[in-house]
Amino acid sequence: MVTLIQTSIIILAAFGVMWLVRKLAAKVFRIEETADTAAEYYEERSRQRTDSLLRDYSLVVLVVAVVIAVAYFNESFPMILITAYVLLAIRMLVKAYLEWKRSSHPKRAIYTVTDTLVLLGLVITLLQTGVVS
Questions:
Q1: Which own/partner contact pairs does 42-45 have at CB distance under 8 Å and 24+ positions apart?
Q2: How far apart are CA 80 and CA 84, in angstroms?
Q3: 3-state class (DSSP) for residue 17
Q4: Which position among 18, 42, 50, 55 has the lowest Cβ density within 10 Å, counted as fewest Cβ atoms?
């Protein structure tokens, strides 16, 4: 049985890996850090409109999944975790696509894709270690 401390260590390690992968991606793909400008603000507002639709839809689907899981299944936390990850991954991949297509710095989409993959690794690790059984 995995304790709360071990679970916390796994999650903190995942965020550490996420930070490290971002730094490596910045060096490998030569992504420069720039200050946000007025054009970036407009692009961010455009992304936020699309993101808010996905966020609202994701919330409704997640609430329905939780209600169904609690009502019909005894051990349903893995299903809830997987559903939450799938909805989050959809949002992040749409965000990456919009960054790639509409941003003045399309290489920044690499950050979002790598974050999605690291979170996938976190979900797989949590499921494999028995934390969410």
A1: 43/102, 43/103, 43/104
A2: 6
A3: helix
A4: 42
Q: How far apart are the first and last CA of the chain?
A: 10
Closest CA to 69 of 61, 79, 59: 79
Give per-residue pLDDT as tens, 39-79.
Answer: 566 567 766 777 788 888 888 888 888 777 777 776 777 88
Length of the chain: 133
Distance (Å, whole) CA 111 – CA 117? 10
Put residue 76 in one of left, alpha, beta given phi > 0 → left and psi -120 to 50 → alpha: alpha
For 98-120, b/e burial (b = at least 16 CB within 10 A) is bbbeebeeeebbbbbbbbbebbe
C-alpha span between 23 and 44 (Å, rounded): 23
Taking the C-alpha atoms of residue 22 and residue 30, their distance in angstroms, rounded to an integer, is 11
28 vs 38: CA distance, rounded Å: 28
Amino acid occupying residue 76: S
- Tokens 């349903």: give the residue: 76
